[in-house]
Structures are given as structure tokens and as C-alpha cells.
Amino acid sequence: MTEPPIGDPGSLSPLPLALHRGLTAVAFFDFLSFLASTALFLRLTYKLILQHHKTHTRANQFLLLITNLIFADIQQSIAFLLNAQWLRSNAIAVGTPTCWAQGWFVSTGDLSSGLFTFAIAVHSYADIVHDFRLGYKTFLAAIAGLWTFNYVLALVGPVMHPKDYYVRAGAWCWINLKYKDERLWLHYFWILIAEFGSVIIYTLIFLILRRRVKEAFYTTSSTALRAKSAAKLIIAYPVVYVVCTLPLVTARLTTMAGGQVTYTTLCVAAAMITSNGWLDVLLYTLTRQGLIFGDELPSGDAGVIETFRIRPDDAFGTVTTIEAGSPATGGVRARRHGRLNSKGILGSRSGSQENLFDVKGGLAGRQHGVKAETVVY
Fold first, then answer.
1. What is the average pLDDT across 221-230?
2. pLDDT higher at 189 or 352
3. What is the enclosing helix (H) or strand (E) of 247?
4. In the chain, at which residue ranges do the beta strands (DSSP E only) sit?
5. From the DSSP assignment, how many helices (H) and strands (E) are in the chain?
6. N or C: which end of the chain has fewer CB within 10 A?
């Protein structure tokens, strides 16, 4: 029996050997992304609920954006998890609920991941460079708007073409190749904006942070250290996203232009894009250790710079330390670090804790130096 062309939108049975092997690899990386993304999403959601229950304060905007990005990654991983059905049955069955669901989750998962990646970039730029954050209600409305935009774009196609919108698109189910305009304007146009927009924004942040660190822009040592850390790490975010998504975008645009791609090419590209989930988890775990492993979350007014914690046990708060020597030496030393805005100036405070104790460990008295420490949180 002659094998249908790769661009044929009809069902495919049995799966060609190259496709079967490729989908097996895709399923492995996708399962890894699904587990990692779900675990991080549940952990962050639990910590956010616990923080709200204890403090009744607003959640940190940056943390909410990360949580939404991870939720988008979960939807993307669900799409490629459905390849397990094609492997089990050794066929891609067009017209089935599985095929439609896969097309839907590919559309919503890929696009929402791009939208929130770009949103995080814009938020980071506004916060770090201009010390600007949206009002909390406006911010929540913006998140709701992004999800609404994502699902509206996904719904337009099936409403316009209810019978044959999601069909076999090479190695899995997605938008029918004959609907090229819908592929471009309802999907890839926005992903390309997210890709190159994120690269431009993060490059600007990197250059500005590097210049500010050199010019001693930040007034405290801890903020300067966080800014230096951010300058080193922040460029990794757009690199990971572009490396993961660009291969599939390129392959799909090639087919839309009349070119040919192989099952192997599509499966490699699919393995890359479905790896976006576990790589996002790895990236934020390594660069924002305090958010994942710390005992507390940043407050609602904490800036993006503060999420780059110097070490996992570094507290989210302002620590002011004053040390005074004995009367003989008359030495006085002060140090302040912690919750600052992007310019290194102390932000709003909701409470404090003070400690006064002998530097040498004994009772504070005339013969010993004294250290006073205030933690503002």
C-alpha cells in the first residue's frame, strides 16, 4: 500500500517507521514537561494560596505571570501527550475527538506560552528600567485579557470551518494546510511577535542592567548583587524560548510556502517545542531559587530585581544593620539591604522586626560593641 504524502490531511495508518520513532521521542520529552510543569504549577499555586491565607496581601505580579506561563506550558504538553494515542493505535485518525483535542491544545498551548513569555518580558522591562507596575486590578484584567485573546483566536478557526479545521498536519493533528491565512494570522504571526519581541526587550534589559552595575546605579550592595546576577542570567529567557519554538515555526512556514519537510524534521521540531515546559521549569528553578525552594514568597510590592535572590535562604525583606564599637574605639558601621525598587531606593514597608545584641555574644554593655538589626518585611 502506498504511503500517503506527508501533507495529506487524511488519516494515516499504519505509522511510517520514521514517524513512529519520532513520536516516541516527542512523547518522552513531552511527558517530562508535563510532570515538571504540573509539579511547579501546583507548588506555586499552593504557596500563593498559603501566603494569601496567612497575610491577606496581594500576590507578587511577577510570580503570577510565571504561574500563568507554567499553566500555558501544561496545555502545550497536553497537546503532544495525545501522540501516545497515535502510537498505541499505530495510526493518526482524523475526525476523532482525540484529533480535534490535539489541534485545539496545540493552538492554545503554543500561543498562550508565547503570550505570557512576552508579557513577562514587558513586565520585567517596565519594572526594572522604569520602576513601573500596573495597578493590581488592572494587572489582573490584563491577565484575563491575555487568556481571552488566546481562546478567541483559537475559536475563530473552528467556528469558520467546523468540519475540517483540525486534521492531520504532517506528524500530528493541527490546522488544515489549506487554511494558510488562519495558520498565519491566528497563530504564527503572534508567536513571531513574542519571539522577536522578547529577544529585543531582554537585550535592552541586559544592556541597561550592565551599564547600571558599572555606573554603581544601585545604592545598596545587595541590590547591586541582584542586578549583576540578573544581567548574567536574564538573556537566557529569550534564548530558551526562541530555540524551542523557532524550529517548528520554520518547518510550518516552509510547508505553507510550498516546501517539503520530513517526518524526522517535524518530530525534532516537536521535541524542541514540547521541551519548552521542562526547560522553563529548569530555568526558573535555577535563576529564581527562592521562589521555588524558599520558605516565603516576595511581597506584592517587590520588584523583579528582588526575585533574583543572592542565595536560596536570602530573605525577602529589608535588613538594616548598625554596629557600634566600644567607647574606646567609637567605631560605627551601618549596612542596609533588601527590598528596594529598581533604583535602589527602599519601597513601602508593612512591618518590621528589631534585634539588639552584643556583637561578642554577651549582654549589651559599655565594655562591648553593640549591633542593632532591623528587618522590614
1. 82
2. 189
3. helix 236-256
4. 166-168, 173-175, 318-324, 332-337, 352-358, 370-376
5. 12, 6
6. N
User: For the chain, what is the largest distance between any 2 Cα atoms, rounded to a whole number of angstroms?
Assistant: 98
Cβ(289)–Cβ(310) under 8 Å?
A: no
Task: Report how far apart, in Å, the C-alpha atoms of 155 and of each of 60, 149, 184, 249, 307 are.
Answer: 31, 10, 15, 21, 36
Angle value at C-alpha 160, between 77 and 162, nearest 5 degrees = 65
**Which three three-digit cell numbers place residue 296?**
516565603
Distance CA 151, CA 75 (A): 12
Rounded to 5°, angle at Cα 108 from 102 and 114: 130
Dump the DSSP string for 27-41: HHHHHHHHHHHHHHH
Quote the cell numbers at residue 204. 535592552
Tell me the C-alpha to C-alpha distance, in Å, between residue 204 and each of 10, 55, 116, 229. 46, 36, 18, 16
Q: What whole-number distance in Å separates Cα of residue 351 and Cα of residue 360?
A: 28
Q: For the residues 157-178, what does the mean pLDDT come to?
A: 95
Classify residue 344 as left (phi > 0), alpha (psi -120 to 50) or beta. left
Residue with cell 488519516: 11
Q: CA dist 203 to 69, 164, 238, Å?
A: 20, 41, 9
Distance CA 343, CA 95 (A): 57
Contacts of 239 (CB under 8 A, 6+ apart): none
